[in-house]
Design a protein that fits this description.
The structure is a homodimer of 266-residue chains. The first copy, chain A, has 266 residues and is an alpha+beta fold. Chain A has seven helices and ten strands. A six-stranded antiparallel beta sheet of chain A has the order 4-5-6-9-8-7. A two-stranded antiparallel ribbon of chain A has the order 1-2. The longest helix of chain A is centred in the first third of the chain and has 14 residues, at 27-40. The radius of gyration of chain A is 26 Å and the shape is elongated. Chain A starts with 26 loop residues before the first helix and ends in a 9-residue tail after the last strand. Chains A and B meet through strand 3, helix 4, strand 7, strand 8 and strand 10 of A and strand 3, helix 4, strand 7, strand 8 and strand 10 of B. Strand 3 of chain A pairs antiparallel with strand 3 (99-101) of chain B. The first copy, chain A, binds a DNA duplex (19 and 19 nucleotides) through helix 3.
Chain lengths: 266, 266
DNA sequence: CAGTGGTCTAGACCACCCT
DNA sequence: GGGTGGTCTAGACCACTGG
């Protein structure tokens, strides 16, 4: 690239920009901005080493901890990578460093005013099935299965199916079912309090004719299948299931590289 | 849950565990471990407030910055969330806080010894198409299209199709094609140096009969479609395309909650 | 108002890398 | 050995929250 600017007496051009300590913006954020635009303008090209943190601190008149925090910002943005004893290097753009989150889904599930939940199935299942294996239960151990269609703004959003451990210490089957259905409903407050950990797996799936109809999607459409397996505080599998949701309802986007400087408009 | 342990004189039981400053493990990591197991054992149940950072610092005989760093570790793990002026709270487990990365893919693409790239198509395309819109080009502007099948350990891994801006300032068409093909090949070193930013989008797709055959997957299989659009340092779209890869070849997994304490074996 | 997290200093020492 | 990032101190002040 020909717009890579060159150094001037070994010091980057932008070293002249001063950090205003009375600004609302913290000093580390200002320094991070400076470094980011330096990188963006090619003062520190990819693969190049950034000035040492101590140098940056002196250059901009801040403490080493503050300079360090500035570099940490860039590191979290995936723009640079640190190597102990070697230095901090500008990273090339690539698919690594990209991260996808499920905010699109959690935002919808948090918008409770516009949510409708339709229970399609709620039952005790005693026959064997994969869920018994996943939940580490004997094949004849009953599990509670609940299937729900969740609508957002009266449009189908996702189809959920969960298999929960049937705790024999609980009262009766009926009340059990009730509480399970209710607590499942409360899951829309996003988050369990009796679960210690879990693992999510994102898959692709071809919709069955029935599911496509329920989700108002075309026959033969594909969608994400988001599997979840939760463990309780005894480290026992407690709940297994999945969401079916199309990528139109749940976009998975990841921005990489430098997106500041009014570039967001494009 | 009945295994929520109670406080003892208002102080958590584990406050007795000391931080060993001569240990290889940094003090902040030790404190993070202590807090993590405290949470895991129910000393700080979900929705509960953690002791103030200053309190933690005094309790464990470290500086406030160190205590702060310990809490930051838990925050990055998604276990707690901070609120200025209010405190630090233990988060419930849920799909929020989960993050998926493409390490599975970048690991494969980095394993160059076991990679084979087969060019299926390399041409200049002059006819209109969606790629012209995405790349913000006039419909008759030629673009370079390359389709590749990437094999890992002699098994089909992914199918890639890219559309790159055809720079008229470049020499001849032939040499252009050569360099593009070559540089595209070099992309397997993971990362561009002439690209400033990009956006990735993860979609689901139904494989065409041809693609399924190429990828040695069953007819009618579904797969991920990972779209990428890259911008150069002039903020102009420079390259657009996608990878097709099945979720078996590229598992997308996200662990949430507390996974320490030898629980990884399960 | 008191309590909390957020920022910041001006150093220090350590662990690691490379020459 | 000299340079780099990684950790740590013992405070300070600020910004925000809530009663």
């Amino acid at each position: 690239m020909n717009l890579i600017k060159k150094f001037k007496n070994g010091a980057p051009l932008s070293a002249e920009r001063k950090i205003n300590k009375r600004s609302r913006l913290p000093a580390y954020a200002q320094l991070a901005d400076i470094l980011r635009t330096d990188i963006s303008h090619g003062e520190y090209p990819p693969e190049e080493r950034l000035p040492a943190e101590a140098t940056l601190a002196k250059m901009h008149g801040v403490s080493t901890m503050t300079a360090r925090q500035a570099v940490s910002v860039l590191e979290e943005e995936g723009l640079v990578s640190r190597a102990q004893g070697k230095g901090t290097y500008v990273r090339k753009i690539g698919v690594s460093g990209s991260r996808f989150n499920l905010d699109a889904m959690t935002d919808v599930l948090a918008d409770k005013d516009n949510l409708t939940v339709r229970i399609l199935k709620a039952a005790i299942k005693k026959k064997p099935g994969i869920e018994k294996e996943v939940l580490d239960l004997p094949p004849d151990q009953p599990v509670v299965v609940v299937e729900r269609l969740i609508l957002h703004q009266n449009e189908p959003f996702t189809l959920q199916e969960t298999y929960s451990n049937f705790d024999p210490k609980s009262p009766t089957v009926e009340s059990m079912l009730d509480t399970v259905v209710l607590t499942e409903l409360l899951f829309h407050e996003e988050g369990f309090s009796n679960i210690k950990r879990g693992v999510l797996r994102l898959l692709t799936t071809l919709l069955s004719e029935r599911d496509a109809e329920l989700l108002k999607l075309e026959k033969g459409s594909t969608a994400f299948k988001l599997e979840h397996l939760y463990y309780d505080f005894d480290n026992k599998p407690a709940s297994f299931g999945w969401f079916i949701v199309s990528h139109e309802k749940m976009p998975l986007i990841s921005k990489i590289g430098i997106w500041d400087e009014q570039t967001t408009q494009s």
